[in-house]
């Protein structure tokens, strides 16, 4: 009986537990059915997400153009490789659609990707062992060129697939790199997976990122287990919005001239740094800007200097600062150019260290203040400050010229120099470019007052922003005056003084004379502070040599600042040798290119020539016509007529500039010795896909000379830098004397 009662009791307990569990489970199911929610997750949304495939539709980042519409940066298609591993993906397919043999797949892919077989086989095998649907291949599986992709696809390897991804590309390589900057791909985890975006890092790519960057679209649809669309896929498409295009004030031809001559000077003189700015002094447009060290934005590795030195690195400028000292004295009404003073050394009182002229303090006896500017006399500058101007008035002029504020140029990273004006010695040395610091772009803005009747213009590099879809102009930069530190009369007198520096009997700027145009300017030789202690570095090469020039001086169309730090000079060379090489080559050719009428000699015919209309004309007739003109022409192919030209009809042609003519039956020319820019010009004309290795000039090409060319063909080129050549430069005793130690105080 006792056992029977115990059995009944336990049965009751179990029944109660069972009923409770049943009610809980039933209640849970009823709750889920009523609410459609589990642990805060809506089941309808979860199920919809599981059976919905969503893919990003990449927007195209806006292009960057020069002022004439030459493309400087654009999105170039590359490919990301992945492998399908799930055997079920090949269900009902006639041929396998998944990787069936990891070892064989690796053996075929490795030679084309330039990696070891193990690097491909390992991720595939790991994916198979872990039952993964697909795998990717890391760095070597990304940014694959179209040619390599096509070669892999020709092998018909089961399971190997590609997804197109844009990559930012800069067709001119190391060209205005610190202005354009670069953008790179970034990966972001989203609910739909990994999102690939291109984001600006430096330069215009960074500061204009919101304008250049578009808005990605997407496509989503209902799918089955194997990622195939259902019959009723509920497809949703949101089209991408492309970024807007930016047109810079940079002129591609002038920038190319500048880059080429700076590269030559860099290779020959091996300086620590070089900087150059070319500006339209009337509008403020930056026509060209470059610095060394520079970098290739397509491969920004081992970059020596990220700073855009012309706007980001203040330094003691040297005697170019005398422009503003003389301008202040003239404007204040205390300047008499014919008045004499004793040159050599100057010491206002015993407490101030003596100031010395650049010829070791010897001077030139008693000379006029006009001649003092022509000879770049430190004593003249100091006496103007101390005896003619009072120091506070001069400081007000420095402020009026904008030396204590940014110029406002539309580039990132602008820095401001510092006027050191606490002690009498600092004030005296500021008058001839020591003690205080400024940037090259600050000097350019200040000197624009001399061109514009006393008014300064704000420098800028963004010409306009254009809607990439409609072509409508969204915004456009206009000339902006930002102060008037001097009068029109003072500006005119300063132009005459600057002309005397280049063209006068005692001028320190004689090496900068041009063949066809009158130049005005001011030389500078700034001492470099000793990083290991007080004072300045010693030695004939331990200077920042500079020149600020305008041409034609009567009506300046271009204003140029160029500097070089610590060049390796030959015994018979001065600091002006590399600078004048840069200045003369760029400015002479640029003014001819701009159709500025020569003031001196008539320019050669080739410099004044307009490109004839050659499109759709007989190849033989065009060849004969071009030969007669003496132009450096390259005819691509054996076709009977010319279908396109690298130079548009009516455009001015620069000396020695290649003119590429494409015939209706194009074949591969011999491009050995060409620059990358010339290769890209050919590629744009023929719609070729170009991949370059190295820098400098072409040494090898993958397409044999004479082979037929078609749109989309892959062209691979290897480039190497040219060997250093010894350019012959004229150098006189006077030139050597005027630059060496120009701004030494003692």
Automatic annotation (TrEMBL):
Query: Keywords on this record?
Result: Membrane, Transmembrane, Transmembrane helix
Descriptive protein name: serine-type D-Ala-D-Ala carboxypeptidase
Cite the InterPro entries for this sequence.
Beta-lactam/transpept, Beta-lactam/transpept-like, PASTA_dom, PBP_dimer, PBP_dimer_sf, PCN-bd_Tpept
Which residue stretches does the UniProt record annotate as biased composition, category Acidic residues? 725-746
Record field: transmembrane: 12-31
Statement: the UniProt record of this protein carries the keyword Transmembrane helix: yes
* Pfam families noted in UniProt: PASTA (PF03793), PBP_dimer (PF03717), Transpeptidase (PF00905)
Q: Where is this region: Disordered?
A: 703-746
Looking at the record, the residues that make up the PASTA domain are 605-665
Q: Which GO terms describe its biological process?
A: cell wall organization; peptidoglycan biosynthetic process
Q: Does the keyword Membrane apply?
A: yes
User: According to its UniProt record, where is this protein located?
Assistant: Membrane
A single Gene Ontology MF term assigned here is:
serine-type D-Ala-D-Ala carboxypeptidase activity
Lineage, top-rank taxon, reads: Bacteria
Q: What is its EC number?
A: 3.4.16.4
Which pathway, per its entry?
Answer: Cell wall biogenesis; peptidoglycan biosynthesis
Query: What's its catalytic activity?
Result: Preferential cleavage: (Ac)2-L-Lys-D-Ala-|-D-Ala. Also transpeptidation of peptidyl-alanyl moieties that are N-acyl substituents of D-alanine
Query: What GO cellular-component annotations does this UniProt entry give?
Result: plasma membrane
What family classification does the UniProt entry report for this protein? Belongs to the transpeptidase family.
